[in-house]
Every structure is written in structure tokens, then in C-alpha cells.
Amino acid sequence: MKAMIFSAGLGTRFKPWTDKHPKALAIINGKTLLQRNIEYLQQYGITDVIVNVHHFAEQVIETLEKNKGWGSTITISDEREELLDTGGGLLKAKDLFTPGERFITCNVDILTEFSIDTLRTYHEENKPLISFGVTKRKTSRNLLFDTDDRLCGWINNNTGEKRIALPKSDLVQRAYSCVAIFEYDVLGMLPFTGKFSLIDVYLELGKEHVILGYDHTGDRWVDVGKPESVAIAESLFP
User: Fold this and answer.
1) pTM > 0.85
2) Is the pLDDT confidence value at 152 over 90?
């Protein structure tokens, strides 16, 4: 199974570090976020990794080369000409995946102990198009699921705006954990071009295909999105 780590973002919430560096190279207890995610994937036997780059791309590429991918085989998806968000980044990298083989994605600024093996087993047993981790965290924006954990929509808790893929009652809110398994066929079904997010993809494909959220509430998880998140991350991930 191949993986893609989304590492191209501008990291605007992580200033002033990102004025001179990519967020992927922010240090948590002596290791970069990028190294930690590569090693996270290695725990589950995933050593063939695509890394997309844009912001200070040369620094990311140089670090990967210097450290020989920390033992993994790294392929660069170059977005220096245009930053494409997660969905657009996946579309640009589609030719780098192995035909017919499911794959996994994660975000470089997320650290978690969520078991990929558990998600993989859940995906194999339920056979959805896409499976991803979710928790009961309350965030500004949440995904909406039915009682069978099927994705049905999205809500902005600040404004009340909703986007519904499947109209159902008694929907529950869950927060996206940014670790997802995709069937290879998704790459031929991406419904947008240019810059777009995976959330847009989920909501569009979820109208006709089964997309499931696996609740792993209780696992260590942190979004290292702001400088003040570093202390939290260092306390959780020594």
C-alpha cells in the first residue's frame, strides 16, 4: 500500500516559523512533523510514500534527500507552480499511485496514534469506497454521519451552514482525523479540477457511494496547526 502525505500548505496559522520554513519541517521533540509522519506509516509496513511540496519546497526535498527518506522510498509531487489543496493535490499525484491498489493519505501537521491496521481491517470488512478516522471532537466544522457511520453531510457550527450529501434524520457529528484509505478507483472519479479539498470530494462522491467514518475517539491526536500546539504535541508525542 502506498501513502501520500499532504505537505504543501502555506502554514499561515503557524507563523512566524512558516515565514522562512515549511510547516512540514517544524520540530516536535527533536523530529520534524514530516519525519514523524513517515515513521508513523512505517509502523504499519508502509514505506512507499508520496510527498507533495509547494511552500519552501526546496527545503523539504533537501531534508528528505539528506535523511534518505528516513528509510522510506519517497516520490515528490511538485506543486510549486500552484498550490492545489488536498483534493487537487491528490488529483495531481494520481499517476504516482499503483494501478488497482488502494492507498492511504494523511496530513503532515497531524500527529496521531490511530491504528492504520484497525482502519485497514474496518475498510476490508465493510468495503466502502473510502474510509477515514473520525472522533467525537467538537470543532468549528464537523462531518455528519448516519447510525451506520455512513457520511451524509457537513456542518459549519459557527454559521449553521450545512451541506447534505444524503438527506437522513438523526445525524451525528464527528470530526475528521485526516487519515483516510481510498480504493484506487477514486482517482478516476475525482469530480473537480484545479484547487479543491478532500472534504469536497467526500461530499460529492458520498451522494452515490458508501464513505465511512471509523470512530477512534480516545486515541492520541493533535493538530499542530498553530505555534501554541507545539507544547501539546510534545507532551503527547515524546
Assistant:
1) yes
2) yes
